[in-house]
Amino acid sequence: MVRLDDFLSGALTIAVGVSVAIAARSFPEVPGEPGPALFPLLAAGGLIVCGIALILARLRTTVTEAWIERPEWVARPRAVAAVVWIIAGLGLSSAFMESVGFFPCAILLVTGLLALLRVRLWIAAVVGVAAAGIVHAIFYSGLRVALPWGLLEPFAW
Amino acid sequence: MDALTTAFGLVFDPYVLAVILGAGLFGLFVGAIPGLTATMATALLVPVTFFMPPVPAVAAIVTATAMAIFSGDIPGALMRIPGTPASAAYADEAYAMTRKGQAELVLGAGLVFSVIGGLIGTTILVIAAPSLAEIALKFSSFEYFWLVLLGLTCAIFISAGGALRGFVSLLLGLVIATVGMENPAAFPRFTFDRPELTGGVTLIPMLVGLFAVSEIFRFVVAEAPPIMVAQERFGSIFRGQGKLIRQYPMQTLRGSLLGTAVGALPGAGADIAAWISYAISKKLSKTPEKFGTGHVEGVIESGAANNSALSGAWIPALVFGIPGDSITAIAIGVLYLKNMNPGPTIFLENPQNIYAVFIVFFLAQLLMLPLGWFAIKTYKQVLKVPRNVLMPLILLFCMVGAFAINNSVFDIGVMLAFGLLGWFLEANRFPVAPVILGAVLGHMLEDNFINSMIKADGQWGAFFDRPIAGGLAAATFLLWTAPLLLRLWRRARGAAA
Amino acid sequence: MIRGLLFRVVAVLMCLVCAPAVAQNDFPNRPVKLVVPWGAGGGTDAVARMLAALLEKDLGKPVNVVNVTGGSGVMGHQTIATAPPDGYTIGLITTEIVMIHHQGLTKFNGSSFTPLGLINVDPAAVQVRADSPYKSLNDLLAAIKANPGKLKASGTARGGSWHLSLYGLLKDARIDPTTVPWVPSVSNNAALLDLVAGGIDIVSGSHPEARPLIEAGKVRSLAIMDAQPSKLFPAVPTVKAASGSGWISGVWRGVAAPKGLPKAIEERLATATRKAWDSAEFRQFMESRGFGLNWKGPKEFAEFLAKSDTEAGALMKATGLAR
Which class for B69: exposed (0-12), middle (13-18), buried (19 or more C-beta within 10 A)? Predict the structure, then answer.
């Protein structure tokens, strides 16, 4: 993951605080109560103060590192592919698992990641299918979690 | 005495013992799966208990929850994935020990001190339930406000990357806690027009994302994937535990007492007990610098605390029918169903039933030793699976666990977002544990503050008027100013000498 | 070989297309989801789990309780209303469905569902601390009139059903509801605790919820907002008997499916619900918890929904809780 110089992390902390504060200012007031804006504003204020403190602490040291340190793994396609696979896999599952169903999502997620982690493809596929089946048996049949069937709805049990 | 004999008869019946054993195995299993909580284990048991007599019905719940809270420690220690929120406080510490090759020591300590904590908590439940429950009933929003503030102060002490960075994480957690409409004004904040966010950010996907998914990200980008567990060979988990008991008797007792007390407060539970205990342990330790590097002391104290909190939660539940946590909330329903109506009279009418429940409490703790040993032995097989095969499987469990808590695919996205956030924070030396604590306590802090202000018509004095509130306020201020006072005192002594 | 494969693919696709049609004849041929808009462990959840166990016996397929929480019941009700109307998703809808759309939290209301049966109503009641000077509802109302703004009340979140019940009672007694500030609470239990701890003065909520503390002598119930006293505490008078006001209010739970459910499936599910409701197990469960047993079939339930919706809307506008 990218590593930021404390100057930048401080600035980022301030930015988060400021955006929370701006959003919170539009919250309505409630007569006779402190209102829903108070706590977000307090937290935002805290973030801004901490951000300033981070920057001040940083100013007292001398610069030795790059401002943004690029992680070394971006040079390795396989590592990048694995990260993208996890993000895309979970992101797409979040968006489409209801309609596509648990099995395709789970099998693809596991098989693909296994393959990217240098497991032979046929083993990856077998493990993927078996894992999806076992997890489904535990959660759906055993613990009665309503894992979506999606496309496989007509074959549901 | 007669009732006690009857009670023993009720418990030591083959059917009841079989139920206890089954529920114990079930609780171990559920607790060890990231994303499935002890509450969920209990809810799943409810329909089964409908068809049981009173004693086995309550026994099933008592046993399953005790086991689930303990077994949450196992994936926390072995894979840095806390199985339940109550294990999150010391998951990092336990994992650090595993990496140092002390997996069996930390797991054994988790087990043994869970049992001791549970036994102490149960003893207090049996002896002092009515009087403790009376005290718990004196807690109004003013007292809870100070208690939560005390808990948050603790978070600053335990943060690994220095107080400032810990504070940033904590504030992030507090901001996350404001999401949704479950605030005193019932106004939807930061929901971005997503109905899923009206209920706030769900804790479990957040927890799994911050701890587990971030760990998976780190693994897949590592050049030579780090060995997750330094050791393949597992010694006996009980070796060295006797020495630990002799070495840390105060810590054990303190954790158990605090756990019982916090558990008995209806507004707090096992997770908060574990956090506060861990912080106290570090604060009062002779070697606070070792905390965070794989030091068993904090695991002992907070491990004892979260199990004793379970027993503590039964104090107001049995005496006043007030649930101490979400688990006892379900259990109270079962008690009513079985005509064991909670209330002061529960000790007078049908005392054999309540004695039987107490016996089950002790039995469940003792049963945890063999069953826990068995669970650890089974679970460690996981470590024999090559890491590049294990990690995708963990990811699958995380995904299903995040979904299962609310049956919502949206939570898978939440887990992913927090996975990325956790990865980013740790790469930049911001600790992730305070984020969880902020998110857990943020609601309580705000609710109790706003409610207190409404009740007091905006008068600040009300926060100090009530005796317990005043005491807690004093403790909080003392904790804040302690470092300063200590320095002044040392200087004064230095000047005198 | 290829033709064989093609044939199989076509066969599978045909199954996919025809499935809904087939499903109507032998409903149900797979598990049914019972969505609960509230968390595992609460009263509604317990009722749902009991009901599910009984429906399962009758339908012959698993009936799985699915908790979909968040936003004062918005998420769960929305999940039921937007599910495919095939009978495989039903849910327990609660009082909040006639309220949350007046607050602008959702576009769904009672008419977004196919009602199958109302199963329970728990009337609201007024609770005070046992050592408080208010021995009757009139004492309390007089104290509120004498000291506007001094007595604080709680029982649920702001704008929740118990909040509405109390404000309705006050309005009916010609007292400005805003003279009793509402302290929001996460649950009725939390409010009762705060009452006993001396933080607030009045709790609006049901008798089953207050039961342990009433029985423990910590809380006194002054009146129940129903036509007759409750079975649990028959000595507690109705609001009518205590103060002359005819105000009636409470929470209810009912089984419903998404709108547009085929008639045959609707009848199957309504019969199954009625059968479960009639069973000795269900009655024993509800009575042991102190929950009221009320029944309204699909038609009366629909009328009830429409009527409560209008009432809630009017009251919420009058008390400034609607948005």
Answer: buried
Q: How large is the ipTM?
A: 0.95
Chain A contact for B388, CB < 8 A?
yes
Which stretches of chain C sit within 8 Å of chain A by CB?
15-16, 19, 30-31, 33, 62, 64-66, 181
Residues C28, C88 contacting (CB under 8 angstroms): yes
Pick from C76, C163, C55, C56: nearest CA to C119: C55
CATH architecture of the domain covering C123-243 = 3-Layer(aba) Sandwich (3.40)
Strand C113-129 to strand C202-206: parallel, antiparallel, or no bridges (unpaired)?
antiparallel
Place of tokens 């299903």: B400
Domain boundaries, chain C: 31-122+251-318, 123-243
How far apart CA C18 and CA C22 sit, in angstroms, is 6
Neighbours of C193 (CB within 10 A): 31
Structural domain boundaries of chain B? 2-490
B379 three-class SS: helix
Yes or no: say if B125 and B358 are a contact pair by the CB < 8 Å rule: yes
Three-state DSSP at B297 gives helix
Residue A40 to chain B, least CA–CA distance (Å):
6
* Tokens matching residue A2: 């990218």
DSSP code, position B185:
T
Cβ–Cβ below 8 Å for C65 and A144: yes
Q: What is the per-residue pLDDT across B256-283, written as a single tens digit (0 to 9) for each?
A: 999 999 888 876 778 788 888 888 888 7
> What is the torsional sign of CA C72, C78, C79, C80?
positive
User: May I ask the CATH class of domain C31-122+251-318?
Assistant: alpha beta
With a cut of 50, list the residues of chain B below it in pLDDT: 229-230
The subunits that touch chain C, with at least 3 C-beta pairs less than 8 Å apart, are: A, B
**Cβ–Cβ < 8 Å for C257, C85:** yes
